[in-house]
Amino acid sequence: MTRRQWLALAVLLAAVALALAWAFAPRPAPVEVAAVARGAFEQIVEEDGKTRVRERYVVSAPLAGRLARIALEPGDAVKAGATVAVLYPADPSLLDPRTTRELEERVGAAQAALEQARAESARAEIALAQAKIDAARDARLAKEGFLSQSAREKTDLDLRLKARMLEAARFAQQGAEHGLAQARAALLRARDLPAARSAAARWPISSPVAGRVLRVLQKSETVVAIGTPLVELADPAALEIVVDVLSADATRIAPGATVAIDAGAGYALAGRVRMVEPGAFTKVSALGVEEQRVNVLVDFTSAPESVRGLGDGYRVDVRITTFEKADAVTVPVSALFREDGDWKVFAASDGRAHKRAVKIGGRNPVSAWVESGLEPGERVIVYPGDSVAEGSRVEIVRGP
Length: 400
Hints:
This protein is α+β, with helices and mostly antiparallel strands and 400 residues long. It has four domains: 27-41 and 327-398, conserved putative lor/sdh protein from methanococcus maripaludis s2 fold (Beta Barrel), CATH 2.40.420; 44-54 and 236-324, Elongation Factor Tu (Ef-tu), domain 3; 56-91 and 197-234, CATH 2.40.50.100; 97-187. Helix content is 29%, strand content 39%. It has five helices and 21 strands. It has helices at 3-24, 97-144, 149-185, 247-250, 304-307, and strands spanning 29-35, 37-53, 56-60, 65-67, 77-78, 83-88, 203-206, 211-216, 222-224, 229-234, 239-246, 258-262, 268-284, 290-300, 315-332, 337-339, 342-349, 352-363, 367-372, 379-382, 394-398. The chain has a six-stranded antiparallel barrel. A four-stranded antiparallel beta sheet has the order 3-10-8-5, with no helix packed on it. A four-stranded antiparallel beta sheet has the order 7-6-4-9, with no helix packed on it. Helix 2 runs antiparallel to helix 3. The protein starts with a helix and ends with a strand.
């Protein structure tokens, strides 16, 4: 081969070597970065809540009877002491022919007993009259000395006995009259009940407070037992929110914490935690996991006119602030990772990744508060993959 050919072959081999070196040389890892910022940091508990009236009154039937149809409708205003329902005596049960016949015969027996009592009363009156005549005659004879003292006393005792027998006969007659009235009352039918539906027999049920009707629990006319719920009353303007949160989150919530309320369609309101209930309860989540939950009560702090669009039992989204710091160094939580029990991040500078240990003061679902290890303005790698290591070359494909 000539010298020119050797030179061309050398140049070709050098170009191939350079191409292979370039092809297999390590390339910078593409990364996304975010800037370390200084600003407000807050920790929140975000859950679904439900509105409810503070004071709810359920008006129940104080007696058993027939309830008249309730004319009130949900939303109607009522005054304290106003009649919300009316009770009447319950109708007697229907009678079959055999029972009717028995009751009719009982009326006849009561009528006969009354006649017997009247006859006994008349006989006792006659006996008393005779005893009075005998007593008057014996008194004259004793005065003239023709009757002994013992005979005179016997006559007086017989007079007193006849008087008591007349009283007993009259009481027996009264008892027979009541027995006849009772037997006749057992034969009453529905056609005999207009008097029972009179105003004298009605029992009005009054509202204990002034407010509005939330629900009519028993609308139609029916027979009700004692304690049957009839109407639910409340003041719909006096609303609160009940939020059930995990017991672990409840330990971070204190009375007075601020609450952001989203009622939907841009209906944003403000509130404040009034109380964290001291008792927890078990609730099964949608995934079938048993959770310990605690109710948190929230009061509205927005203007009353802005809350009027809500009612009892409305669903709302709440964000309870458990911690806030106005001037904090923050970093996205996606930039954090754990190594040897410490929090660390990759800072991007001069085209390379540098591992930093950081001290975290708190986290929320979006950002973390960095107490030390980073300064505002630095850039950190978010979602670092396996291709990112200490000192490795990186290429920023997204971020500031």
